[in-house]
Amino acid sequence: MGTSKANIGPVGYSNPIQEWNNDSVGESSVNNINDEETGSEQEEDDKGNEEQTSTKWGDVKRSFSAFTKNPTKTNYKKFTSNYRKASGGNKKLTKSSIGGRKGAVILLDFFTNILNDGFEQTLEKYNIGSLKDLKVEGAINKISELFSSIDGTDEGSSASGAVIETINKLYNDYADNPELINNLEIDTISDYLEFYITTYIFERISVEVTKSLENGNLSVKQVNDVESQLKSFIEAEVSLNFSQVNFSTIDIKAKNEIINQIFDEAYSLI
Question: Where is region (Disordered) located (predicted)?
Fold first, then answer.
């Protein structure tokens, strides 16, 4: 097993990152949302616009710069508060997390199948085949093919990155005793889901925010240090409590509703 990361293919850029030099909220909204999703929730979006106009993206950039210079919890909270408000609030961030939510549902299905049927049977069910003759990277790539339906936009690439990290963590956790993966429990699945969501949020913020540092004066090491601090704060702040939910016994509609609630809560905590 080991610690290698896999690569599930090239990433597209059909959705733009935030326009840091443009304070017009209308032109700097978070990644496009499907028309089907916005149609039934337009009234909710209109309410969110009031919150969105209260904080401009210039404020997000300034608060992020302050965090890079002094990565304290106070500066982190100011930055994430501005980021959340400028993005239209928790609900709009959740709705725009299309790839993130899709990845969470697929991940849950995969884990609950392991819970119910065992690892080898799950591989057969998903037509993945045996992983015994594959090296770590090849095995992770094979499992990650389950998530190929996640789009190649910036937001989707954040979900794909979080999936890779989660599958990689799964392999590392059971590297010494691979047979124990068949003893996966609900609480363990919840831990993996929390890991996925916090990793996704970090990956998305990194795409939307830290790319603004590319033209700055920070060295590669400084950027890496800032991202490490940012990830640590997100992991510390986002503590989700859904271990009592038996994901293996609920239908897809209920599962999607729970995922939406989880993302909403997660964004409220960053």
Answer: 1-59
CA atoms within 13 A on the CB side of 204: 30
Length of the chain: 270
Instruction: Report the C-alpha gap between 265 and 219 in whole angstroms.
Output: 34
Nearest CA among 145, 116, 108 for reference residue 129: 145
Q: Which DSSP category does 31 fall into? A: S
Instruction: Tell me the whole-structure pTM to 2 decimals.
Output: 0.75
Question: Are 136 and 174 a contacting pair, CB within 8 Å?
Answer: no
d(CA 125, CA 123): 5
Contacts of 260 (CB under 8 A, 6+ apart): 94, 101
Residue corresponding to tokens 């949302």: 33
pLDDT value of position 104 = 92
User: What whole-number distance in Å separates Cα of residue 12 and Cα of residue 132?
Assistant: 32
Q: How many CB atoms lie within 10 A of CB 41?
A: 14
Which residue from 169, 156, 233, 223 is spatially nearest to 196, judged by alpha carbons?
169
